[in-house]
Amino acid sequence: MSTDLPRRSDIESAAVRLTGKIRRTPLLAVHGEELGVGARVLLKLELTQHTGSFKARGALNSVLTLPEGTRGVVAASGGNHAGALAWAASLAGLDADLFVPASSPTEKIDRIRDYGATAHVVDGYYPDAYEAALEWSDDRPVAYVHAYDRFSTVCGAGSVGLEIEEQASDADLALVACGGGGLYAGTALALRGRTRVVPVEPEKCANLHAGLAAGEPVAIEVGGVAADSLGAATIGSYAYETAAELDTEPVLVSDHSITKARRWLWQRCRVLAEPGAATPLAALMTGAVTVHPGDTVVVVISGGNNPEVP
């Protein structure tokens, strides 16, 4: 397969387009010793972004680059992209129809409606919502805005990487959760040649791992505690091509370690992250990723749209 990957200049253009419209999310420093590592650890709190996740970046960049005259948008999502696209569409005065799986938390579904969009709840997981969205939009004059496998979505997500560079120019490593892979691809391409970016997947949603092993994106069964946000059955082409080109291997973590990391974030930092957002921290806490004494590590806490306290 061949996918034209965004260049840094494409991501910089997206960041300019988003300036003043999205939040510059903060870094929270924590003592590495608390996590069992000798590194300096910084948490990039993307759960403080509009709509509660990094998805606002890609959704708004996509909406702002739609052809003139577009009247409506449609998408499938585990919930975070749907809420973000509902928000972005409301800013642009567009109709939005969002398809989400019944496995999504009620908080995520309610957020879609709060922004005036229509939520279509589909039995199953993200792949089921995706098929339903495609079928619904097939004969309607609307723009389909993919949750993670769209050039403009990846470029918008990549603005996270540019902020990391500005806020922590000495960062040696950035850890990001990987579901469909838009955040991983955008961040890795933004920081290419500057900071190593490692994608982290739940063992039960390891589509990038499976794709790299097969030599191409392949469909897998998904499940587990983080499936509502990381449960894409097939890795996106942008993430796959990025990992292959940069020779990057994803790190896998268990559901138990994700739950433990989420609990740590709440108990020690009062950061109420959703399970998928705690996935990269789980990699650090379990030693699944190697860090060296004196390293600066940025962990992207990508969303907080699950109100259940761990």
What can you see in these coordinates?
The structure is a single chain. Helices cover 42% and strands 16% of the residues. The longest helix has 17 residues, at 151-167. The protein folds into two domains: 8-53 and 150-301, Rossmann fold (3-Layer(aba) Sandwich), CATH 3.40.50; 55-144, Rossmann fold. The strands form two sheets. Strands 1-2-10-7-8-9 form a six-stranded mixed sheet, with helices on both faces. A four-stranded parallel sheet has the order 5-4-3-6, sandwiched between helices. The mean pLDDT is 95. It has 310 residues and is an alpha/beta fold.
Any key phrases for this structure?
6-stranded mixed beta sheet; globular; 2 domains; alpha/beta; pyridoxal phosphate binding; Rossmann fold
Task: Assess the beta-strand content as a share of residues.
Answer: 15-25%
**What pattern of helices and strands is seen along the backbone?**
HEEHEHEHEHEHEHEHHHEHHE
Q: State the helical fraction.
A: 40-55%
Oligomer: single chain
| Average residue pLDDT | 95
Rounded to the nearest angstrom, the distance between the terminal CA atoms is 41 Å
| Strand neighbour order, sheet with most strands | 1-2-10-7-8-9
**In the CATH hierarchy, what is the class of the largest domain?**
Alpha Beta
Radius of gyration: 18 Å
CATH architecture of the largest domain: 3-Layer(aba) Sandwich
CATH fold-level label of the largest domain:
Rossmann fold
Major β-sheet annotation: 6 strands, mixed
**What is the total domain count?**
2
Write the layout of secondary structure elements.
Blueprint: H1 8-18, E1 27-30, E2 40-45, H2 55-64, E3 72-76, H3 80-92, E4 95-101, H4 106-114, E5 118-122, H5 126-137, E6 143-144, H6 151-167, E7 173-177, H7 182-190, E8 196-202, H8 207-214, H9 227-230, H10 237-246, E9 251-253, H11 255-269, H12 275-286, E10 296-301
Parallel strand pairs: 2-10, 3-4, 3-6, 4-5, 7-8, 7-10, 8-9
Antiparallel strand pairs: 1-2
Helix pairs in contact: 1-6, 2-3, 2-6, 3-4, 6-7, 7-10, 11-12
